[in-house]
Amino acid sequence: MDNSLTLLGLLSVEPSYGYDLKHTYDRFFGVRKPLAFGQVYATLARMTRDGQILALADEAGGGPDRKKYEVTDLGRQRVSQWMFTPDVPSETLQSNLFAKTIIALLVNDNADRLLDVQRTEHLARMRELTREKQGADLMRMLLCDHALFHIEADLRWIDLTAARLTQLRNEITLP
Amino acid sequence: MNPSIVRLAVVGSRASWGRLLGITAGVAVGVTLALLLWGAYQGLDARDERSSWMSASGEYVVGGDTSQRAVTGDMASLGNDRVLLAPTTDRHEGVRISRFDVAAPTTSGVTIPDIAALPQSGEYYASPALIDRIARVPADELGDRFGTLAGTISDSGLASPDSLVAVVGAATSDLIERPTAQIVTGFTGPPYRASSNYQTVAIVGAIAVLFPVLLLVSIVTGLGAAARRERFATLRLIGATPRTVAAIAAMETAATSFVGALIGVLMAALLGPVAALVRVDDGAFFPADLAVTPFAAAMVVALTVAASAATAGWRIRRAGIGPLGQTKQPQEKTPSLLRLLPLTGGLGLLTATTLAVLAGLPVPRVGTLIIIGFTITTVGLLVAGPYLTLIAGRIMARRSGAAAGIIAGNRIRRTPVATFRSVSGLVVAVFMVSVFAGAATTADGGVIPVAGPGLLPVSTLIQYLEPTSDAADPAETDAELARLAAIAGVTGVVTVYRLDSGPDAGRLLLSADAAKGLGLGAVPSAPVVSVNSDVMTGATAVFTAAEVTDMAALTPSILLLGTDGSTAAIERARTALQAGGVFATGWAPAGTRTDLADDRLESMAASFATLAYLGIGVATVIAGLSLAIATISAMIDRRRMLALLRLLGMNFSGLRRIITLEAAAPLLSVMVLSIGLGFLVAELILVGLTDGGRSVGWPDLRYLGALTASAVLALAAVAAAASRLGKNTDLAAIRYE
Amino acid sequence: MTAFIQARGLRKSFGTTDALRGIDLDIHRGEVIAVMGPSGSGKSSLLHCLAGVLVPDSGTVIVDGVTVSALNEARRSALRLTEFGFVFQFGQLLPDLTAVDNVTIPLLLGGMKRKQALKEAHGWLDRLGLEAAAARLPGELSGGEAQRVAIARALVAHPSVLFADEPTGSLDSLAAENVLTAMLELVRQAGTTLVMITHDPRTAAYADREIIVRDGQLAATDRVGIS
């Protein structure tokens, strides 16, 4: 899962202080492994440098935790591009897809479409594997089947999530 | 058991309401017919009982009474405990009148239960139908035969409201000369029992009608069986025991058949008066004859409910519905050749009985043996049906080149029992109609005497005279002959004589002039000529010169009254003959050749032919109904398969062909057999019952009509079923059922 | 190039339920299409409309230049007979007919002589490895065998489109795979267009492309003009 893009996504919901941003992140994605403050500030600095966000005028001068950040148009584009680019099916994919779905719901973008795009990608990969199976030896075939079953599991999650989007949207609205 | 479970299981949907309605209607029809048949059976008994006084008999007085208390021409010789009775069968316009001439003193203690007092000479009592008839026609055609009306014979003394009965008072001196006169001491003897032949035919007829009724009930209770099995499987899945399910099925059927049976009782009560109009044995019924007693009705209802509930419960238990339902249709056992056994057995019994009777062996209870043989043959036909159906199915499945034929053929060979069940009613009906048609042919042959050159005209009245009676005063006789000749419409009067011995014995003698007057052919020139005696029964007349030459030496034997052929003239002549008294001395009143032929041919088969055709008609309609219901029911059960065929691109006419073939194949394969068997059985029954006296001839048009009606009904039944195809082959059924 | 099957603006409702709410779809000749989507999304209704089993309330279906949705029932029957084949999840064989007789039905309906039809049917059963099952009744076949007989029957009359509704839905993984590979091989050899409803992504993976139906509409990615 891409932390920086997730943070950028959260920022595009509304301008936020670094401190609040960390807590929002932890609420959705950091249940098991909260984000360190240092990592948040480093990421914010990098994104500022890349022009994806900008710091609003200091309210009381002082440290980074007193700065409020806002996403730029470039930043929004980057988030959108991230959300609607399907990931290559892999075992580490799930957390990223989850993050994309949550962000899409938070910024009120089309989460359905995001899942469809990912489903298409998964099916394309399954087709490749199925083609690879034709005429392959049994060892190769079993390997392909292993991969196919994993991708199928992802797809089942996608279908289930797609079916529960409305429910999910109601549950995660930011306080 | 929780009643709401029953409600859910039984009346789940609109389709199940249709099923319950179907069962109710089927049971109602069955109970109605059963009650009417029962009523008719009792009605026939009641008839015999009421009219038992008509069969009173006693010692004949012909030739003079030689007992101690000899009856003489004097009324007083009878005393108060005896009457003189002379029963005859008279006719009017072709209809029979039972006439009883009675001589009794006014003080007689002998009574007829349904008449106020025995009529005195010149008086008569008549049944209401006869009184109507007398009032309707001129007195010189009918009324003058009887005298003065003294009263009405009440219904309780009549077999039928149509009965024409007269009890006519007479003087002892008039009756004592009559050959039929007998001394009777009472009219309340035990009821005259119908002959066992008559009962045999009646029971056979009842079986003929009841078979299709039972089949109908069996078919309607199987309506929608497939859908119901699924519902019961669901019940089993959620924990109902096989017992519970069987109990639910039994309760469902008990409740529906109870309602059906009650409706049946009601319909039988309503239809009784209509059914009473059916003429059986020359007369309709009194409505009360067919009325079913509350006890009989209760019995029929109780039996119907108990039997149908037990059958339903048993069927469900036997079907063995598990929690998962039946994924495959229940496999039918392939019928084997053994199924032909009962049929062979029944035919064997009939053949053996008949052969034994023909061989003159003493066969006890021929009637019972024939009923048993007939019943076994009928059941045997039903048992053999599936086997023959299977063969037909196999041939069709193998030989057919079209999809419809192959599908229908295979369906038939996999389910021959179910397939045959739908047509079994019609098969039985056709078998029965063939039996009755075969039996009736013997009665129909020659009923209508032919007219032609050389034959005695059918318009000529024949009055047989009593040869032993002394020739009356010739002057009086001549005056009487002149009176008869003067009647309007009478064209001639001829006296025919007979000799008991000599070369002319056995032939009829008459004067050459009279013979020429008859116009029956060449008459040899001799004073007296003779003619063959069977000219009276329709043979061609051949005149020869007689040995005798003196007319005065001869005894008058027959009086021939030529008429112009009009009914009025014939009846006027008949009435005049009876009113005169001089010639009314024969065994029976005068009749034409037609009348006499009717008397000779009056047989059990003839009097039952109409009833038989009626019964068969009812049975055929019910069988057609059964076929329609069975076809629709099978179609509903196979909805999915038919939809599938439509999906494969078969059009409606293809589907119709499948349904038609499935009904037609068993019908045709067993129909020819049942027609053949029907005639064979008719022959066996007739020959067996009449000791070889009668045998089967060619069937009449009514039979062809009945066969055509069966065919039309079968077609209509299948067409009715096929017209519902559209509703039952919704393509969506493929996926969701 | 115009598509072999063209659906435009398909709408169909059953009572108050809208099964199809405006579907546009192009399928090319010889294409293998998987139709996916949640239960009750309208997949089957779509298939039935394409095959002329159901008549859409509005919209048109054109197959090979023939407007199916405008034909009468008799013409649609004829079209199903000559152009379409069908395979379902289960229970589609006539229970009273042997396997080989089942396969001959479409040929006989098409007017072929029985002897010739039996020869052809045996040929198809052989190709699907069912020589031994030819004389058996459907009740005596395993699920996989029954499905292969159904496939033989669907393909025996050389249809241009095969419609399959969950053809492997009631089979285990291995039997499903065998049935699918057999079906796909025959379909690809003959260049038959296959439209197949499935819940199973691994089945869908045999297709050239999948379309997803949701609430009576195609998912955004599948709409005509996007792909």
UniProtKB/TrEMBL annotation, chain A:
Transcription regulator PadR N-terminal domain mapped to chain residues: 7-79
Pfam families linked: PadR
Organism superkingdom: Bacteria
SUPFAM superfamilies: Winged helix' DNA-binding domain (SSF46785)
Matching InterPro entries: Tscrpt_reg_PadR_N, WH-like_DNA-bd_sf, WH_DNA-bd_sf
Gene3D superfamilies linked: Winged helix-like DNA-binding domain superfamily/Winged helix DNA-binding domain
PANTHER family found in the cross-reference section: NEGATIVE TRANSCRIPTION REGULATOR PADR, TRANSCRIPTIONAL REGULATOR YQJI
Protein name per its UniProtKB record: PadR family transcriptional regulator
The species this protein was found in: Cryobacterium suzukii
Automatic annotation (TrEMBL), chain B:
Topology relative to the membrane: Multi-pass membrane protein
Pfam families reported in the protein's UniProt record: FtsX
TM region positions: 20-41, 201-224, 245-271, 291-316, 337-361, 367-390, 420-440, 611-637, 658-681, 701-722
All copies of domain ABC3 transporter permease C-terminal, residue ranges: 205-315, 616-727
Keyword terms, alphabetized: Cell membrane, Membrane, Transmembrane, Transmembrane helix
The organism's place on the tree of life at top rank: Bacteria
Subcellular location: Cell membrane
Keyword set includes Transmembrane helix: yes
GO CC, any one term: plasma membrane
Keyword hit for Cell membrane: yes
Listed name of the protein: ABC transporter permease
TrEMBL record, chain C:
Keyword Transport: yes
Every ABC transporter domain range: 5-226
A Gene Ontology molecular function term of the record: ATP binding
Entry-linked InterPro entries: AAA+_ATPase, ABC_transporter-like_ATP-bd, ABC_transporter-like_CS, ABC_transpr_LolD-like, MacB-like_ATP-bd, P-loop_NTPase
Pfam family, any one: ABC_tran
Superkingdom of origin: Bacteria
UniProt GO cellular component terms: membrane protein complex; plasma membrane
Entry keyword annotation includes Lipid biosynthesis: no
Sorted UniProt keywords: ATP-binding, Nucleotide-binding, Transport
Protein name: ABC transporter ATP-binding protein
Originating organism: Cryobacterium suzukii
